[in-house]
Write a structure and sequence with these properties.
alpha+beta, 8-stranded antiparallel beta sheet, Rieske Iron-sulfur Protein, Naphthalene 1,2-dioxygenase Alpha Subunit, Chain A, domain 1, 319 residues, 4-stranded antiparallel beta sheet, 31% strand, 18 strands, 2 domains
Length: 319
């Protein structure tokens, strides 16, 4: 399970998108999952496969805090335990459970741990900004037809800004003939923080890589808070679901979400037009491409991916 992306916490969506009585289907690293809320409103996740005849539980409905299979009406609680087998009051329900996957709701976001079971060896590592009060969190998702590692390394790549984003983000890194760009990487427990200087003059924006698949952009806005998160969520080996999130303490009304989403979609579209042409589709070993000094953040990500994620799997537990 979760081949190439096992045993990690990842953001999978906004908490408000998981409704009380509606299942939410999701695919992560080749595994189909269904999220729903139990009777106490807690977020839960199961492998989207009924143990009876293998149909998708997400096609069913949520009843009394359980997901009901659309085929024969079997019901499963958030921990995967079987709560009902219609027509069979004598069924040994303790042997007829579904497979749970750890999920948490933290900082307004849904986090999933990519291994089966109820327990996880750690908890999600939230950015500090998500622990604050009085913030608006909004976002959207968009598909990229490319392996997630290409999307992730692009989000860490400073030098492409004045070229790919000449209509949107060019001023974030203004290009002048003969200028020298320096990029600085600081190791952090959750990954690394990068900053830049042009001709020795530091730039104010900083960009974080948060293991395994999130970019966190800090944009100076005076006394205001304005930060961006981008999560490259692998759907399968060739498709990525990109979550672009805005965190702000101004224009907090929901009606402004559309404005920030429109801006994000424009930036994402610029990236998609280029990234989807990458060959090979998954980031190769560094020796197979030509790199320069300003590629340090992306090369660090490639090493982390190959050392800690590539080829990883999570086995399904015995029932």
């Amino acid at each position: 399970m979760f081949r190439g992306f096992a045993h990690v916490w990842t953001i999978v969506g906004l908490g408000r998108d998981l409704k009380r009585r509606a299942p939410l289907p999701l695919q992560v690293a080749g595994e189909r999952l269904v999220l729903f809320r139990d009777g106490q409103g807690r977020a839960c996740a199961l492998v989207d496969r009924c143990p009876h005849r293998g149909v998708r539980l997400s096609l069913g409905k949520v009843e009394d805090g359980c997901i009901e299979c659309p085929f024969h009406g079997w019901r499963f609680a958030g921990d995967g335990s079987n709560q009902l087998v219609p027509w069979n009051p004598d069924a040994r329900r303790e042997r007829l459970g579904a497979t749970p996957v750890p999920v948490r709701e933290r900082g307004g976001l849904l986090w999933l741990y990519t291994a089966p079971g109820l327990a996880a060896p750690s908890e999600p590592d939230l950015p500090d900004v998500l622990r604050r009060d009085g913030l608006a969190l909004s976002g959207f998702t968009t598909p990229f037809d490319i392996h997630w590692t290409r999307v992730m390394e692009n989000s860490l790549d400073w030098p492409h800004l004045p070229f790919v984003h000449r209509r949107t983000l060019r001023d974030a890194l203004p290009l002048r003939p003969g200028s020298r760009l320096d990029i600085f990487w600081e190791d952090r427990p959750w990954g690394g923080r990068t900053s830049t200087a042009i001709d020795g003059v530091p730039r104010p924006i900083t960009l974080d890589y948060r293991f395994p698949n999130t970019m966190h952009l800090h944009i100076p806005s005076g006394r205001r808070t304005f930060e961006l998160l981008l999560t490259a969520l692998p759907v399968d080996h060739t498709t990525t679901r990109v979550l672009m999130l805005t965190i702000r303490d101004f224009l907090r009304a929901r009606l402004f979400d559309r404005y920030f989403a429109a801006s994000g979609r424009k930036i994402g579209g610029e990236d998609r037009a280029v990234i989807e042409t990458s060959s090979p589709r998954e980031v190769p070993p560094a020796s197979q491409e030509r790199s320069v000094r300003t590629d340090e953040p992306t090369l660090r990500f490639r090493k982390i991916y190959r050392d800690r994620l590539m080829g990883s799997t999570a086995g399904e537990p015995d029932r």
